[in-house]
Design a protein that fits this description.
By secondary structure, the chain is of the alpha+beta class. The protein has a domain at 57-106. The chain is built from three helices and nine strands, in the order ββββαααβββββ. A five-stranded antiparallel sheet has the order 7-6-5-8-9. A two-stranded antiparallel sheet has the order 1-2. α1 packs antiparallel against α3 and α2 (69-81) packs antiparallel against α3 (85-111). The longest helix has 27 residues, at 85-111. The two termini are 21 Å apart. It binds zinc ion.
């Protein structure tokens, strides 16, 4: 089976399946699923290191702006409509929501605690289309002190994840509902 992993931190492709860290940026890579006799298994990778974790600057900018669906759409509204009432009603809330959501994910990656979780669903997000591309939406569940939480992330490259796959989730530090997959996807 041909496995092509992309580093979620720097978007470099890692062809060598034995690598646990990216050759380019040193960031941890997601584990590779193994297929034996047609049965696909994915084991939980290494736990995230304890907080605070350093987040590379290019990754930060990508999460906040260049891969942030709501910020891109909000930005398009601003460019097309300027500071009109439509922008105020639609564009501004989109920008605000996209920006705070991304900030929360970055805080969880840098300062959050970790918990093992499970993938619930991996599907195209048909509600969004940017540059003729639709992102993938990965929904996952995790538990914090006995309470079940759900989260989701967008990925622009098809992730090698399937429902029920084990994943690491980083959450918090202010709110257990704010979370991100570890390592992040592109
Ligand atoms: Zn990398």
């Amino acid at each position: 089976m041909l496995v092509q992993r992309t580093c979620g931190w720097c978007t470099t492709t890692a062809a060598d399946v034995s690598l646990s860290n990216c050759r380019n940026c040193g960031g941890p890579l997601p584990p590779v699923p193994v297929s034996m006799g047609g049965v696909r298994t994915l084991t939980l990778g290494l736990a995230p290191p304890p907080a605070p974790r350093s987040i590379p600057e290019p990754y930060r900018n990508r999460v906040l702006i260049w891969k942030n669906v709501l910020v891109i759409l909000g930005g398009i509204f601003t460019l097309c409509l300027g500071w009109t009432i439509v922008f105020g009603l639609i564009g501004a809330p989109m920008l605000y929501l996209g920006w705070t959501r991304a900030q929360g994910k970055l805080r969880a990656l840098a300062l959050g605690r970790s918990a093992p979780g499970r993938v619930i669903e991996v599907d195209r997000d048909y509600t969004v289309k940017i540059n003729n591309r639709r992102p993938w939406k990965i929904a996952y569940a995790y538990e914090v002190e006995g309470a079940r939480h759900e989260g989701w992330v967008h990925a622009w490259e098809r992730p090698d994840l399937a429902p029920d796959d084990p994943v690491w989730v980083v959450w918090g530090p202010d709110d257990p509902k704010v979370s991100c997959l570890w390592p992040p996807v592109v």
